[in-house]
Amino acid sequence: MKLFDVYPINDINIVKAKGSYVWDDTGLQYLDMYGGHAVISIGHTHPHWVRRIEDQLNQIAFYSNSVQIPIQKELATKLGRLSSKEDYQLFLVNSGAEANENALKLASFHTGRKKIVAFSKAFHERTSLAVAATDNKNIVAPVNETNNIDFLPFNDEEALKNYFQTYGKQVAAVIIECIQGVGGINVASNNFLQLVRNFCDEYKAVLIADEIQCGYGRSGTFFAIDGTGIHADIYTMAKGMGNGFPIGGILIAPHIQPKHGMLGTTFGGNHLACAAALAVVEVIEQEKLVENAKEVGNFLINELKTIDAIKNVRGRGLMIGFEVPEEIKTLRKELLFQHHIFTGEAKPNVIRLLPALSLEKKEANEFLDVLRETIHLLNKQPEVAISNASTGFRNHKS
Ligand SMILES: Cc1ncc(COP(=O)(O)O)c(C=O)c1O
């Protein structure tokens, strides 16, 4: 049987990982500035995470949500403390798509309304409601098409005002990434978020912060929206929550009441996933990784801004984007194949940095040195760059 060929893949087989590094099957070491797609939060194979999962596996991996699962409550308590959302309620799922799908559905149940407001360049995933709220026609199948979602321009206060004045009473939810990931690291302004909050209050709509990529400490505050002092009614989470173990969740404000049967899942909140998520919360707290993301992120952003050849450096914490001009458009491939550094991208020309929250300053410097050198060579003479670079700047063997 063949795999369903939907991913354009690089011909690299990663077999080992530790902290901010991974190794391929030939022993080559790579610096992971991509965090396996913003998923690695506390660092690859963190010993506490490995131990917690191993211990749990020896006890029980799964039983259904029809019985008491105390480890879910333990996770809710510790996550409530870490996120300062002690009064919120936690519903556990398996992925970001499920988190958004359930959040949107819950908002509709809660308000009895149908309209969802989403924004230009938003990405909320590929399942039916989530993809309908995603601004990319190529991934919306005919069956996903709906008139219930309205897209407004991101950060456009006037458009938001006009929309709410006309349709406000029909709006179930506004869903927003405070820092858009797939869209290219676009940061929502404080004024815009405040206006979204005000309109949601005035018209009793639910504000959903999609924190799947920008949340869980990545932006240097636990949730990206925390930095603005504005609260959401529902926070959706996944990626960094399990450090690679599949788990997602939604945090639900106390005024949104549950009803038996309203939401449900077979695998969501299973013992093993909760053990992984607990390890992540514990390590984030103990190792002060939110603070680290802020400090190392600020350092990286400031240094990147001094490199003339790249443009429009933006982001917060360890969620950083910059534009790569046409003359050096092979930069990302050079970094990966010649210098063994993983980065992310956003079409058409943005490099996205989404490393582990535990990234050390010396690893950030390692990245910056290679970046500067690669840009220098590419600017000098592209052909020379490729042949020189193939010798590598450092020893990549494990
Ligand atoms: C902002 C945002 N929302 C939702 C998702 C979907 O998460 P998952 O792939 O776990 O379903 C992603 C994934 O990239 C994302 O970046």
Shape: globular
User: What is the CA-atom radius of gyration, in angstroms?
Assistant: 21 Å
Strand content: 15-25%
The average pLDDT value, as a whole number, equals: 95
Q: Find the count of extended strands (DSSP E, 2+ residues).
A: 17
Q: How many DSSP H or I helices?
A: 12
Numbering strands along the chain, what is their spatial order in the largest sheet?
A: 4-12-11-10-7-5-6
Measured between the Cα atoms of the first and last residue, the distance is 34 Å
What can you see in these coordinates?
The chain is an alpha/beta fold and 398 residues long. The protein is 36% helix and 18% strand. The protein contains 12 helices and 17 strands. A 7-stranded mixed sheet has the order 4-12-11-10-7-5-6, sandwiched between helices. The protein is globular. Bound molecules: pyridoxal-5'-phosphate. The site of pyridoxal-5'-phosphate (PLP) has 14 residues, from α4. Pyridoxal-5'-phosphate binds at residues 95-97, 100, 123-125, 177, 181-182, 210, 212-213, 238.
Topology:
Elements lengths: L13 E5 L2 E4 L4 E4 L2 H4 L8 H13 L10 H14 L5 E5 L2 H16 L3 E5 L8 H5 L16 E4 L4 H11 L3 E6 L2 E2 L5 E2 L2 H14 L2 E5 L23 E4 L10 E5 L18 H16 L2 H17 L5 E6 L2 E5 L7 H7 L3 E2 L1 E3 L3 E4 L7 H20 L1 H8 L9
Parallel strand pairs: 3-15, 5-6, 5-7, 7-10, 10-11
Antiparallel strand pairs: 1-2, 2-3, 4-12, 8-9, 11-12, 13-14, 14-17, 16-17
Short description:
The chain is α/β, with parallel strands linked by helices.
Question: What keywords describe this structure?
Answer:
398 residues; alpha/beta; four-stranded mixed sheet; 17 strands; 36% helix; disordered C terminus; binds pyridoxal-5'-phosphate
